[in-house]
Amino acid sequence: MSYDWYNLLGRPRFVVAPMVDASELAWRLLCRRHGAHLCYTPMFHSNVFTKDPKYRKDSLQTCQEDRPLIVQFCGNNPDIMAAAAKLAEQHCDAIDINIGCPQSIAKRGKYGSYLQDDWELLQKIVSTMSKTVSIPITCKIRIFEDIEKSVKYALMLQEAGCKLLTVHGRTREQKGPLTGVASWKHIKAIREAVSIPIFANGNIQCLEDVYRCLECTKVDGIMSAEGILTNPALFEGINPLTWQMAQEYLDLVEKFPCPSSYIRGHLFKMFHKLFMLEDNNELRQLLATAQNINDFRQVCITIKEKYLHYHQGLKHFDNDEFIIRINFNLILPPWICQPYVRMSPEEHTKKMERHNKEQDENIHKRIHEDSDGNAISRKKMKKLRRIMRRPIKSENQPGRSGEICINEMCPNPLGSKCVYQLCKKCCKNKCYEENLDCEGHRILVYTKREMARKRVSENDDKT
């Protein structure tokens, strides 16, 4: 029973991940044409989806070729998420819940991986959505450090009604420069424990990685995000020319338009190795300022004209620094679509230590002094220089007198009408701390607080 609906989809194994501003229809179709079996939409906010018809229409842009398709939502209200799922169920084959996003915006909104600590709420979300729609509810999660807890987590979601689980083998803290390697051991343990289909996510840079992960974890499918952004033909097992992939993508964009920011983001990813070369700074700037489809096409044409002779062997490309070696000793020049190789957390830590050490050495080398020869900070020196550049007004001129704020730690000029002889910043701090007004700076902390108290008192009297 757990696999019936998955079998009807054709048991997809190669899956394109949900990526904000990057999994739009044109990109999904490009990936499908190059080996992908199943695609996810970008993550949509369930609350906005239910309230904004335009947002909903843009989100559900699809076509006959764009199936099977899973729509992903984020949120923390079971009823709102269920309502969003109901509005989308006629346009897709399943609804996914984002429980994996580790970004700070997810923390502020209490969704994504920041729901993984509230199992009771997650159970209610999954069960409510499952009862509301006629298509399966799936979940995309991250692991905990502890394998046993990760397994219990997956079993809890399965029991709540989840019909497919995508497991990103990294913890919530593994992001940005601290991403590191995903744990296939965790994914394997979850696969052995649950009875629903499982997708693995993490460490996929080429097709060989896909098959290694399938063999190691015994999962049903492999999801790629970062890897497929730099090579949309990853599941096809080839490394095509960057300009060929870019031009094919732009052809799809003309048929299925999307914001220029999406296009620019995809081209930057595909051309990422070329743009690391110093003599391509102008090309990088050209892409950064491109505004329409013709501008983007011109970038592709220029890159092709510049590197086609190297690819054909008519010219020798001599820059070993940007020819990287990946699995199975495959050597790829920078005009070929290839994996984005992240710096390891250890390398990043060492780099930051070196950077901080250099910064400290530079600070010690440059000693700033005031007019009396006293050592001062670089920040204070910059403030003093700004003050020196200001022309001193005569006594007959209206405005500031040229006097400095009476706060000894502040070099800013005082406000000409300030009651407390302070600059605006210091005056504001004083008013907030001591519950005062300053007519000169128009800072009315005391007045506003009294008005607020009065309104609260009036409301209490009415009730």
TrEMBL record:
Enzyme Commission identifier(s): 1.3.1.88
Q: Which residues form the DUS-like FMN-binding domain?
A: 16-271
- Has UniProt tagged this entry with the keyword tRNA processing? yes
Q: Which UniProt keywords apply?
A: Flavoprotein, FMN, NAD, NADP, Oxidoreductase, tRNA processing
Which is an annotated GO molecular function term of this record?
A: flavin adenine dinucleotide binding
Q: Which residues form a coiled coil?
A: none
According to its record, what are the GO cellular component terms? cytoplasm; nucleus
- Cofactor names: FMN
Q: Which CDD domains match?
A: DUS_like_FMN
- Reactions performed catalytically: 5,6-dihydrouridine(16) in tRNA + NAD(+) = uridine(16) in tRNA + NADH + H(+); 5,6-dihydrouridine(17) in tRNA + NADP(+) = uridine(17) in tRNA + NADPH + H(+); 5,6-dihydrouridine(16) in tRNA + NADP(+) = uridine(16) in tRNA + NADPH + H(+); 5,6-dihydrouridine(17) in tRNA + NAD(+) = uridine(17) in tRNA + NADH + H(+)
PANTHER family the UniProt entry points to: TRNA-DIHYDROURIDINE SYNTHASE, TRNA-DIHYDROURIDINE(16_17) SYNTHASE [NAD(P)(+)]-LIKE
| UniProt family annotation | Belongs to the Dus family. Dus1 subfamily.
Q: What is this protein called?
A: tRNA-dihydrouridine(16/17) synthase [NAD(P)(+)]
